[in-house]
Amino acid sequence: MHPVTSAGSYHEFVKRLLTTALVVVLLMGAWYLRSILLLGFLAAIVAIAIHIPAHRLERWGWPHGLAVTFSTLMLTLVAVLLNLWILPNLIIGVAELIALLPSALAQVAEMYEQWRQQSGPLRGILPPLVDQSLGEAQAILGLDQQQLQSFAINVVNSTLPVLQGLGNIIISFLANSILVIFISILLLVEPHSYATIALMLLPRQHHSRFVEIWNKVYATLTNWIIAQSLSVTITVVLVWLILGVLFGMPNALVVAFFAGVATFVPNIGAFLPLIPIAVFTLVENPTQFLVIAPIYLLIQLVESNVLTPSIFRVELDLPLAGLLFIQVIAVALFGSLGLLLAAPLLAVLTTLIRELYSYDQLGLQGLEWQITSTASGGIRLVNSDRVTGNGAGRSRQEPNERQKTTAVVICETPFTTERSDGD
To answer: Is the pTM of this model over 0.90?
Structure first.
């Protein structure tokens, strides 16, 4: 019996070694292809965003293909029109601001000189601003005409790589956008086929649980899209009403939509609308920027710390400190795209860890904790009762019960499935 035991132990060791090696290879491959996988995740989010209105049209009797096509065209048209509306206004504003810079600088210099002359003590401390002609400037700098031309050529040569890099970024963005839209359309054509492929890679007793987790991940991403849409809508309405209607800022609706789109970029996106605010207000009335900018920051403070967290807490139940931590990690690992997708990534990871580890391994499904603070600042667990009912309170199906389910998957909607129980 001893040789058999040794042989069995050896085969078990080899099996575990090969499994570990396979996991390591898969993780290394995922790390090497992380940018492509992240684009695939973005494509899945876009596909779900298209599917939400398409599913509504299907419930009204539209064919699946026509509903998907119409939703895709409408969302693409809205995105293109917003870009064609926002970007030209920004470019015109920047051009006007650049054209006004010489006169604005001259006005600032004149105001400075008047203020210096009117203040006796400061007159001897602050230096005067004296206009210098080109010849006087050349004499002061010790540069002749040829040296000035050489300096201008060096400036142009140093600017060209920056412009080339900017062009490469724009081309890469457009190419990735087209790729994401194309993959999203492919996902919408036969979405349940991917679930079928995954079922073929899993043991039969896990098929029912896989379908449950598939639907929960889909619901999580749907809730994130809804929460983000509500956040964008609230931002647009608040910025337009307060800055445009109450304070009369020029191009307020453009700034409002820009601020709404910027909410997709966590934390940093709150400050990006200061750029169009500066462009539009400095052209019309420079002093207005000193009033509009603090008011906008106050709007963002309320929206980012009160309204949006409340929406995300209701829809997704995400820990806000964990979201900020995940954003930092996502930027370090994936760059700007990781920052953009940090919230849905955290939502999906939270769902998977809860379902696969907390519920399936630890058996914590249906438990409800009540935690209070102690006098010393710590926490105390009051009780942990198991609740019953729908959703998260349902009792977990045991593995031996799942073995009785069949592998039949019924497609309720293009992205959700239901299991069919049988012998």
So the answer is: no
